[in-house]
């Protein structure tokens, strides 16, 4: 039988591959448009521990159907400081499992129905005015195109079996020895790296296997290479991001390389186990089935999907106990002394177990707020380019902003309706203080940012140094242990000029400083003035409620309730504290 290469092979293969990849894109875009923001927020909340990270990664990737999008999302969240490196590693492990759900779905024999479903959902997409309905239709249309594209590819690849020169070439891609197995893995990894989609590579392999072009063991070997090549996208996404974001990408690469290196020596044993297991999925994948008078191998895609799923689950179970090891090793990659600075994005004292105990929760909030204040004061060290200060004001501010949100959320939990008035008043005071502290930190960030951006001349630099020293001293009103205390001298011996005087000095610089330089100093003085106002407001807020007495009465009440025989002399004051 004569084969028209263009009509019988090129058209269905290229068209099918295009529809397959377009379907992947449509399905991913539709689902992500519906839920990616919710998924990102869910991930930021859920990935608190390694186990939760694996579950969150599996669930989200299973929903959005793109391990590539998932790992890029994780890298971005790590870069933003929302997710730490340790839970990010476990999320990536879960993403590897979640993406196999898509591989299993692709293996379903629904190809001929794909076109009619794709047409129906495309009509819904075109005529619907509701954005949510359009996104659902887009996802379903993509899902249907995946099957139709795979069906076209399988039909277009089948004639290659009748071309001796093609079959002779493909015989070199046969995973019948360890050397050939490694060759197949590397070729699949290179293809996946080029097209940035492990699902697309596995779809192509499934089509070749179903058409009988590749034997099923070789098709399975190619799926290993797809898992290896998919790591290139997260690495590329991390190139211009923070060191921790790069480390998250390195974790993705390391996990998949280690998994493949462990699986390759066990490949031929695992193939025999898979051959036995395939009896539960329909029989031997190497046995052809006549469909329309033509031989096809419908169980090869199933075998590839099953193997890919089992491989990723096995890999995660094997490496999960070593999440801490990955974290320690990767944390040393590109490590500098600046990274030894405390991570202020993670609360140190806010224990959820204490939230139900008012007497213990209040001191925890006070300690964390003081820690937030300490983080804000570090912007002065950044402005002075101190050796142990964080190198990037923006990254440090992002960490303090995350801490501020955690403090506010935790303190809000303490605002229970059954609390006495004085305790509610104390919680409200702490919320106010936390808010003022966040605003003070933002002003301090502006101070550091402006000083770091501009190179000042000698006279201008003297004004800047005086302004920074003035703010340093002002902070001691609410941070008694901050900096170096003033020496004991007669009152008024140590004094700093007011902001108005520093502003006048700046305007008088004249030719000693450029217009941009003077403008920067004036903006800097504005930030310092706001900071000093907030310092006075925090100090006043602390004095507005007799916190020590309210807390002491709360402790007594708790102790009496735990020991009813012990009658105390104090009662709870139903009125505001003096």
Q: What would you say about this model in short?
A:
This protein is mainly α and 578 residues long. It has helices spanning 5-46, 50-64, 67-80, 85-106, 111-127, 131-157, 164-170, 178-195, 198-210, 216-229, 231-237, 243-263, 267-277, 299-319, 323-331, 358-383, 393-413, 421-453, 458-475, 499-507, 515-544, 547-562; strands at residues 289-291, 294-296.
Explain this structure to me?
The structure is a single chain. This protein folds into two domains: 5-332, no CATH class; 339-483 and 497-561, Methane Monooxygenase Hydroxylase, Chain G, domain 1 (Up-down Bundle). By secondary structure, it is an all-alpha fold. Helix content is 71%, strand content 1%. It is elongated, with a radius of gyration of 32 Å.
